[in-house]
Amino acid sequence: KERLSQQDEAGSRAALVTAMVIKAKGGKAAKGKGAKAARRGDGNRRNNPRAFKAASGPKAMQRKAHRALEKQERQYHVQLTDRSVEAATPPPAVVVVVGPEGVGKTTLIRSLVKHWTKQNINTSSGPITIVTGKSRRVTLIECPNELNAMCDLAKIADLVLLVVDGSFGFEMETFEFLNMCQVHGFPRVMGVLTHLDSFTNIATLRRQKKVLKHRFWTDIYEGCKLFYLSGLKYGRYPKQEVQNLARFISVIKFRPLIWRNSHPFVLADRIEDVTSPSAVQRDPTTSRSVCMFGFVRGTFLKPGMKVHIPGLGDYFMAEVSALDDPCPLPERQGLRRRLNVKEKLIFAPMSNLGDVTYDADAVYVNIPDAAVRFSQRKSFAADAPNGGEGEGEGEGEG
């Protein structure tokens, strides 16, 4: 009997120890699950009866159909006819790069030009027209930090790239341009964050991205696209990041605005002074005759119309003539997915890029050294009278 009682005591002790271990393990696991649920925010998940209801059944299906119809109804809007695309070939879309000084506007334009045309551009002065696809062209222009220029570009921009220094945040120039867009008609807007390589802590970088994104959505609209560009590589932004931005620019759809549908306007690619040099020499303050070249956007431009030149005033046009397209779209040749290298054209007369450079005094044609061919003297000697034997003095052969 004593032996049995001792065995019973030992067994009860072992059972008690096992129960304590199991209870301890269960309590630790329960605490871990509770902490995970608290981090996920699942503690009060079922407390909202509106958000978390039955996902199946007749009522649930009815709610899903009702929500889908409401979502579709919010997408309806009054259709507007874009009068600028009524022509056989629509003009290029105007993409304005806006931002304060030192945020990387010029570097962004250089990176986009390199991505689309495989050419390097040193200076981005004036409009830069590029063929980006089989049926789309884009005109890139950098917005200076002047109130008048920002007001003029806000009227004609189809797409605005707001460049923001990620390490500093939004600045005054960004909000000024957004207020001007609200007055003249709000174009499509995409944000670009730069200087993100200055962050050494990943947690700080994520927090800054989140803060800037919510601020960006508050000023424009919720869901507006925001792109992140990290550090420079060979003087340009990384290829993959630029490619993501270029794809969105190539496929984005523009909504026509009322002001542009009722007003023709021209963004001058280049300006040429055709005033007689003798008249300017006699009187430097004489009236000038100026030719402006550019794509007509909006409605049709008629001869004899009165036009407004920013900074100068209202003038009557003397003549309007149609010229050949300096940056034409490629011809349709079957079903092709991409452009050839020769079809990726660029037209930037003010940026010293390409074969022709326009200056205030003359027009320069750049000829590569490999294409230069000099005539030999023997050919001139054969064409000269008396076989090239004259009274002149000279030595050597060509």
UniProtKB/TrEMBL annotation:
Q: Where is this region: Disordered?
A: 23-59
Where is the sequence biased in composition, kind Basic residues? 25-38
Tell me where on the tree of life, at the top rank, the source sits: Eukaryota
Catalytic reaction list: GTP + H2O = GDP + phosphate + H(+)
Report the InterPro entries cross-referenced here.
AARP2CN, Bms1/Tsr1, Bms1_N, G_Bms1/Tsr1_dom, P-loop_NTPase
- What cellular component GO annotations does this protein have? 90S preribosome; nucleoplasm; small-subunit processome
Q: Where is the signal peptide?
A: none
Compartment(s) where it occurs, according to its Swiss-Prot or TrEMBL record: Nucleus, Nucleolus
Record keyword DNA-binding present: no
Q: Which residues form the Bms1-type G domain?
A: 90-255
Q: Which UniProt keywords apply?
A: ATP-binding, GTP-binding, Hydrolase, Nucleotide-binding, Nucleus, Phosphoprotein, Ribosome biogenesis
GO process terms (BP): endonucleolytic cleavage of tricistronic rRNA transcript (SSU-rRNA, 5.8S rRNA, LSU-rRNA); maturation of SSU-rRNA from tricistronic rRNA transcript (SSU-rRNA, 5.8S rRNA, LSU-rRNA)
Broad class of where this protein is predominantly found: nucleus
Q: Give one GO term, molecular function aspect.
A: GTPase activity
Q: What family is this? A: Belongs to the TRAFAC class translation factor GTPase superfamily. Bms1-like GTPase family. BMS1 subfamily.
Q: What is this protein called?
A: Bms1-type G domain-containing protein
